[in-house]
């Protein structure tokens, strides 16, 4: 039987590009892919954090080459400059994103919807499009977009975030159709609750409100999702993991969770 495992010589290390690598799932994915033998290109707005992360990774895994770049996926010029600085891409992790608030449709604020679409949807579109030529040049490329359970299941208060992540799902599926027959795999990983800075950002910096989301249950960690990304990217070349819904055991749907109260 043909062995389709992706093998690279030490001089031919695959390069993984990760957006939103300055915290949470993106930072954990940098570690996971570095440990899986990838060199890294890390992008986010907070470049100081990227620098700290890169130094820690290189200190622990010296053979990994890590480069960091300022990236605002909502800014076309920033995405263009980011992509122009990359000469090889074998894995792209479209991770930058987030939610704003939980307002109803009735009370919705255009600017919040606009921002959620810009970062979650157009951000994925811009970076994917910008790196597609390089991905096509790879012996076997993988594009992983971090969606959400919000892409699969509408929920009260989900509003703009639901709509944006549903759009990411549509974009990802169309991309998979468009790349059929080419050596580029396309995957969407949809996590449920993951304890990161996500809820703090969603609630405008309200740490108590964010902490309450995870109270009395064990959410996923950023590392849990990162392991899934690394697993998807290291399957044999003929295997495409199209989508993966990844939930904590304590969560069965967007708003149905099991909490232990003291
Ligand atoms: P997080 O800790 O807040 O990380 C978000 C990352 O996105 C940060 O590195 C941030 O970096 C980056 N980012 C935000 N806006 C950006 C922009 N305009 N340009 C470039 N980077 C930007 O949250 P997380 O949980 O790891 O979120 C990662 C992804 O998982 C998001 O797409 C989120 O929607 C999704 N997700 C999260 C959960 C959850 O419960 N945590 C569940 C399902 C899906 P800078 O601020 O430095 O730019």
TrEMBL record:
Protein known as: Serine 3-dehydrogenase
Any Pfam family hit: adh_short
Residue ranges of domain Ketoreductase in the record: 14-216
Annotated GO MF terms: oxidoreductase activity, acting on the CH-OH group of donors, NAD or NADP as acceptor
Alphabetical list of PROSITE patterns matching this protein: ADH_SHORT (PS00061)
InterPro entries on file: KR_dom, NAD(P)-bd_dom_sf, Sc_DH/Rdtase_CS, SDR_fam
Record bears the keyword Oxidoreductase: yes
Keywords associated with the record: Oxidoreductase
The UniProt record lists the keyword Glycoprotein: no
Superkingdom as given in the UniProt entry: Bacteria
SUPFAM superfamilies, per the entry: NAD(P)-binding Rossmann-fold domains
Stated family: Belongs to the short-chain dehydrogenases/reductases (SDR) family.
Signal peptide region: none
Coiled coil start-end: none
